[in-house]
Amino acid sequence: MKKITIADVAKQAEVSKSTVSQYLNKRYDYMGEKTKKRIQKAIEELGYQPNFVARSLKQKSTKTIGVIVANILHNFTTEVTRAIEDACHGADFHTIICNADDDPVKEKHYIEMLRAKQVDGLIIFPTGDNRDLYQQMLDASYPVVFLDRKVEEMPVTAVMLDNERAAELAVDHFAEKGYERVSLMTTSIFNHVTPRMERIEGYRSALRKNGLAVEEEYIVSADQDEMQEALEKLLQTEQPPEAILAGNDLVLIEVLKYVKHKGLRVPEDLAIIGIDDVSFASFYTPSITTVAQPTFKMGRMGAELLLDKIDKKDKQMSPFYRFEPKLMVRDSV
Amino acid sequence: MKKITIADVAKQAEVSKSTVSQYLNKRYDYMGEKTKKRIQKAIEELGYQPNFVARSLKQKSTKTIGVIVANILHNFTTEVTRAIEDACHGADFHTIICNADDDPVKEKHYIEMLRAKQVDGLIIFPTGDNRDLYQQMLDASYPVVFLDRKVEEMPVTAVMLDNERAAELAVDHFAEKGYERVSLMTTSIFNHVTPRMERIEGYRSALRKNGLAVEEEYIVSADQDEMQEALEKLLQTEQPPEAILAGNDLVLIEVLKYVKHKGLRVPEDLAIIGIDDVSFASFYTPSITTVAQPTFKMGRMGAELLLDKIDKKDKQMSPFYRFEPKLMVRDSV
DNA sequence: CTGAAAGCGCTTACAG
DNA sequence: CTGAAAGCGCTTACAG
Fold first, then answer.
1. Domain ranges of chain A
2. Top CATH class, B63-161+295-324
3. Which CATH superfamily is domain A163-293 in?
4. pLDDT tier at A316 (50, 70, 90 boundaries)?
5. Do B158 and B147 meet the contact criterion of CB atoms below 8 Å apart?
6. Which PANTHER family match (chains A, B) (predicted)?
7. What's the CA gap between A273 and A184, in Å, rounded?
8. Cβ separation of B53 and A49 shorter than 8 Å?
9. Does domain A62-161+295-324 have CATH number 3.40.50.2300?
10. Which residue from A215, A326, B69, B176 has the least number of CB within 10 angstroms?
11. CA A319 to CA A155: how far, in whole Å?
């Protein structure tokens, strides 16, 4: 079955391709009623579907954006991504999601591939290790928005959580409940990922603010597959912490696994707060106190900022947008 | 900054566009070494990036597939989608994911939009209500694979769970543990969604096989927002069930919320099995017995089947692929 | 009010 | 071994 093109429609309707094109683009300004009807009829009879690729080539817009996430396994990422898709859908844009898997090489490959595919802009959860590429996009004024993380010295619009505040909310809550020995666990900080560094910073200053000592051994970063070991080590010391702040959802899961495995009681033996309001927090037993990120708002904001840039409604935007975390008080502390 | 095109490279390297194109496509057959070098040099100097859209127009292949899921909120969907993306990535294909939100109108819109964008094929979790469109794609031999669900009388390759077996595994396990009054809860069956219908069927026959009575009141289907009410009604009868089979992850969550709210003990007051091996099943308290779907395998198979079709390696494939569910025995029954 | 023509950035059969 | 030319399916400035 041969593809129907605009030429076929034109022939069938006995008008020129130009006129059909005008019709398709709803530039009816001076178009005769009968012409419209004829074209409409021809389109229906032939079952014509415009070829978006051809249009994209000419118009230099694919109505598609790319989203490169650092790691799709985070619940946060999934939710933000969903919000981005929703917002884009509203603007008739498609999204191509790519998972860099925390690997700068993959990230580079995706950036290049997506740009070759002429996506109109990119939302990136940057690994941070492709500064030259980021810079190149900046220089070319190619529309980019960073999400969740920023890259030092790169004036790229970034949508982020107020991470220090997130850690502070948790530490304050622990302090309020009388806990003094509070640990912070995060996944690897090898790449100096913004949220992790900032959460550690916020944790430190919040402890000080509450007159609590900062024990360096209580700050632990480990890869997910080493987390059980790290927990064992952390909790088998002379003076183990009474409370743990899990730096993200994956850490929280590891903590809960450990707790279950060891038969610890929460919060009696160990109090827990997790950053990221995971789905099961509310109906877990005990229900888990969390610090929620406004994932939906953040995703939408990221998408809107990018779409504005694409639309040149840019007008010198402030580079960083910070979002307020929210403490969800439940029973685990 | 003007876009660099193949013409610029050709000029810089003092060869023709054709030759550059050959080079890009690695058709080196008769290309002189110095020519290659010159082109390579020009590409680097200019920072040339091929325009994939132009190539797509000519080659009639976008190296992109579309995935239209019925409802992205299911954990199953997220996992399958991830597997599809992985498999496609391996074949240098991109994926555009669209969420039809169980709405046939949205589904139609997405199918048309993606085809206009000339995606090379489509994986669809069909709502089932766009038979004409499905048929049209079949007639045009456009590459399509259904996932999770099939559509009656549509000979479209479909990748599905052995749903009857999934229900049977659960019922057998309940029976083995001595439970006699077993309920099955599913989300709405308004559209006769394949897995739900088949699970109900499997549940019925497994009860019979185990010599247990089929109580029609124990088979309940409700939308998510009516689930609590439905549970209340189900469990406040004269002879309430002692066990519930949650038809999917969303139902399971509603059941757990109810249980927590009412302070029921699991499995003493109510035994539970969920179809879909949710992330928290293993570290929930009590840990939840589930029937796992091989989401990764199913997604990969769907992608491979589609890529084969696109590649015309089709050769009359069997229309349905069934995957074996697996019982994950834990503490909730 | 409508059409002929050029062009978007590639690829490819063909000529030499 | 390499190049000129046509063409993929559209859009758009311009002419009439």
1. 6-50, 62-161+295-324, 163-293
2. alpha beta
3. Response regulator (3.40.50.2300)
4. low
5. yes
6. HTH-TYPE TRANSCRIPTIONAL REPRESSOR PURR-RELATED, LACI-RELATED TRANSCRIPTIONAL REPRESSOR
7. 10
8. no
9. yes
10. B176
11. 6
* A interface test, pick of B65, B81, B94, B330 with most A CB neighbours within 10 Å: B94
CB of B79 closer than 8 Å to CB of B299: yes
Which pLDDT does position A27 carry in this prediction? 73
Exposure pattern of A164-185 as b/e (b: 16+ CB <10 Å)? bbbbbbbbebbbeeebeebbbb
Express each pLDDT in A205-244 by its tens digit.
999 999 999 999 999 999 999 999 999 999 999 999 999 9
* Cβ atoms of A171 and A182 closer than 8 Å: yes
Strand C footprint nucleotides (protein C-beta < 7 Å): 1-5, 7-13
What distance in Å separates the CA atoms of residue A109 and residue A116, rounded to the nearest whole number? 11
Burial of B281 (0-12, 13-18, 19+ CB in 10 A): buried
> Which nucleotide's C1' atom has the smallest distance to the CA of A57?
C8
CATH number belonging to the domain at B6-50, selected among 1.10.260.40, 3.40.50.1820, 1.10.10.10, 2.40.50.90: 1.10.260.40
For residue A311, give Cα distances in angstroms to A21, A86, B64.
Answer: 23, 18, 25
Class of residue A139 by CB neighbours under 10 A (exposed 0-12, middle 13-18, buried 19+): exposed
Report whether B131 contacts B150 (CB < 8 A): no
Q: Which two tokens stand for residue A299?
A: 């995703």
The answer to whether the beta carbon of residue B30 comes closer than 7 angstroms to any atom of strand D is: yes
How is A297-332 classified by DSSP, letter by letter?
A: HHHHHHHHHHHHHHTT--SS--SEEEE--EEE--S-
- Taking contacts as CB-CB distances below 8 angstroms, the residues of chain A near B85 are 97, 99
Q: What is the spatial distance, in angstroms and rounded to an integer, between the CA atom of A43 and the C1' atom of D6?
A: 28
Residue A191's pLDDT band (cuts 50, 70, 90):
confident
Length of chain B: 333
Render pLDDT for B188-212 as a digit per residue (tens, 0 to 9). Answer: 877 789 999 999 999 999 999 999 9
Q: Which range is least confidently modeled, A37-41, A144-148, A274-278?
A: A37-41
Helix (H) or strand (E) holding A54: helix A52-59
Q: What average pLDDT does this structure show over B51-66?
A: 94
What's the half-sphere exposure (Cβ side, CA atoms, 13 Å) at A271?
A: 22
* Distance separating alpha carbons of residues B234 and A187, to the nearest angstrom: 44
For residue A118, say whether its CB is under 7 Å from any atom of strand D: no
Task: Express as a percent the part of chain B with pLDDT over 70.
Answer: 97
* Identical topology for domains A62-161+295-324 and A163-293: yes
Give the angle subtended at the CA of B48 by the CAs of B3 and A58, to the nearest 5°: 40
CA dihedral B222, B228, B229, B230 (to 10 degrees): 40
